[in-house]
Specification:
By secondary structure, the chain is of the alpha/beta class. The protein is built from five helices and seven strands; from the N terminus they run αβαβαββαβαββ. It has a single domain, classed as 3-Layer(aba) Sandwich (Rossmann fold). This is Putative rRNA methylase.
Length: 189
Amino acid sequence: MQNDFLNAVDFSHYLLAKTVKKGDVVLDATAGNGHDSKFLAELVGTKGKLYAIDIQQQAVDNTLKLLKKDSLFKQAELINSDHAELDKYIEESLKAVIFNLGYLPGGDKEIITKSESTIKALNKALKILEVKGIIILVVYTGHEGGKEERDVLLKYSTDLDYKKYNVLNYKFLNQPGPPPEIIAIKKRK
C-alpha cells in the first residue's frame, strides 16, 4: 500500500512550488548534490535568480554539474562558503530559502551542519525574506549532532513571533528511521 502523505523532500518541494514564481530570487542554503537547487532554478526561470551555497566544494561542483546538465546555470550563482555568511553574497530580498540539513549524501559524513551556523544563517535569511516568503528546513536526525540541531531549531522557530511568522512542523511519527522532518517558516509581515 502506497503512503498517502508526501515524504519530507516532496512536501518541501510542494511548499516551494506554492510560494515561488518566475522571476523570484531564492536560496538553496545547503546546495548538497543540487536537487533542491535544480527544482528552485526551474521555478524561478531565466528571469529569476538562484543562489546556492555550500561549505563543501564537492557540493558546489555537484550542483554546478546538475544545473549545467539541465541548462539551468544561467539563473544561478553558486557559492562555496558557510551558509552563516550568506549576507556577504546576497543583497536582494528572497522569496524562498531551503536548508537540507545533515551531511552531503555520498560525501564525508563527518562534515555536518551544526546548529550554531544554521541559526546564524536562519537569522540572516529571516531579515531578507520577503513578506509571504518561506524558509524550509529539512532536518535529518540520524547522524551525530542531528537531534541537537533539530531541538535547537524547533526551540528557535517555536519562539518566533506568531504575529510575524507562521511555523509548521511536519514529520512522520511511526516510520522507521528516524525519518527527516520539516520546519517551515512563512513570513506574515
